[in-house]
Structure prediction request, 246 residues.
Amino acid sequence: MSDFPEFEVIPAVDVQDGEVVQLVGGERGTGKRYGDPVEAAERWIAGGARTLHLVDLDGAFEGERVNADAIEAVVRSVPDEIGLQLGGGIRAAEGARELLDIGLDRVILGTAAVETPEIVAEIDETHPGSVVVSLDAKDGEVVVSGWTEGTGLDPAEAAVRYEELGAGAVLFTNVDVEGQLEGINREAVESVVDAVDIPVIASGGVATIDDVVALKEAGAGAVVVGTALYEGAFALREAQDAADAI
Prediction:
């Protein structure tokens, strides 16, 4: 399920303390709450979502899965035909495999992939194409540990490295514009898209349907949208229809 045969607009269900939250610029404590994760998932599926993007925000900061119960409630509630990808706090191959076996289609690895790149190949051996490597960029540099630590890695160069290790897709988040509804950085996305053959899922800064269309034109295989959907800037179906029209 790592390939995206058609461009997808993917709603984010980011979970903190058991509730849906959208952070601003990746800063802990900036989040606005949007209620129950299962209700959010059901709302987006009713709105036409084909895939949901789940994030354990506490897990991303703490380095272990904190909201496992809330996430698993979403997994149980979602129809089989809906794709599910989860990130945040996944640090070991064994834990990733367990998640894939309970019904997730893709696991998203950020810090673990940077610190232990071989974990990507390890998971790919048993669950081919199921690893999405999350490359979060701040000032043009990949950052880890909940966006708090710089790595010195260039996002495009890092994407090539993980493609070689077996990653099925790359999730590229521009932290500089995350959650601010101020628009995307198309050039940053294009540089990663041009570097690899696997799909690039873009994230960060989407404020308008034009941003969604621009990311498709930039070559992204999908876009994750959070704040804009929760704040009602546009409807999920409208955005998907606009992307499908080009």
Observations:
- The CA atoms of residues 64 and 137 lie 22 Å apart.
